[in-house]
């Protein structure tokens, strides 16, 4: 059967397919559910509160990061938002075109670009964020306050582990792997 499957149906299918394979099923299910929850949350927000503001999840996150930090170098905005610098360029162009964000030169290094919200962007975030937060509360409505705090701490622990040890782990995995194939940029390899 193809199409949408519930979380329970998916877990049962995984168990049927991989039940006798020696894997850390608990880890697989945890990461799978983090991914599914993140995708469901993103879709919910884009179809509800962000739709009214004509924002994607990514554009909202960029606005949020710049709003919180007031002014920030583009490379740091991309890193904080979890997107590439190329993706950030497109998002910023769109947000600039809507008059929500502006670029500025760095005071000490003219090569660096700073982002800041315009007055219109500030106004949008001040009015949008309470509605956004109401949807955050809706998403975790089945959890009580203590369960929300425990979930937040558990996810923080996952993030901190990757921040502290992820670079070393990725480097070790890359060292034990063959080099990746060349990117499909359309260019022919040099002879």
Global geometry: globular
DSSP summary, beta strand count: 3
Which percent bin holds the helix content?
A: 55-70%
Weakly predicted, low-confidence segments: none
**Adjacency order of strands in the biggest sheet:** 1-3-2
CATH C-level category: Mainly Alpha
CATH topology term:
Arc Repressor Mutant, subunit A
From the alpha carbons, calculate the radius of gyration and give it in angstroms: 21 Å
Looking at how many chains there are and whether they match, the oligomeric state comes to single chain
Average pLDDT taken over every residue? 89
The CATH superfamily bears the name Winged helix-like DNA-binding domain superfamily/Winged helix DNA-binding domain
Note the total helix count. Answer: 8
Largest sheet, if any? Answer: 3 strands, antiparallel
Order of helices and strands: HHHHEHHEEHH
β-strand amount: 5-15%
Secondary-structure class? mainly alpha
Assign the CATH architecture: Orthogonal Bundle
Query: How many structural domains are formed by the residues?
Result: 1
Region (Disordered): 164-191
Domain HTH marR-type: 27-160
Keywords: DNA-binding, Transcription, Transcription regulation
GO molecular function: DNA binding; DNA-binding transcription factor activity
């Amino acid at each position: 059967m193809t199409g949408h499957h519930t979380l329970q149906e998916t877990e049962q299918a995984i168990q049927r397919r991989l039940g006798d394979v020696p894997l850390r099923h608990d880890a697989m299910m945890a990461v799978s559910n983090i991914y599914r929850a993140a995708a469901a949350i993103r879709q919910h927000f884009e179809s509800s509160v962000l739709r009214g503001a004509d924002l994607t999840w990514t554009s909202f996150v960029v606005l949020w990061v710049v709003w919180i930090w007031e002014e920030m170098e583009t490379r740091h905005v991309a890193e904080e938002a979890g997107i590439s610098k190329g993706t950030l360029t497109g998002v910023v162009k769109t947000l600039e075109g809507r008059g929500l964000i502006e670029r500025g030169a760095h005071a000490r290094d003219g090569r660096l670009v700073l982002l800041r919200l315009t007055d219109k962007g500030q106004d949008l975030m001040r009015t949008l964020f309470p509605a956004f937060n109401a949807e955050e509360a809706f998403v975790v409505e089945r959890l009580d306050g203590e369960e929300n705090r425990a979930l937040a701490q558990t996810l923080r622990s996952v993030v901190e582990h990757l921040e502290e040890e992820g670079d070393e782990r990725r480097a070790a995995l890359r060292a034990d792997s063959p080099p990746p194939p060349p990117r499909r940029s359309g260019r022919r390899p040099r002879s």
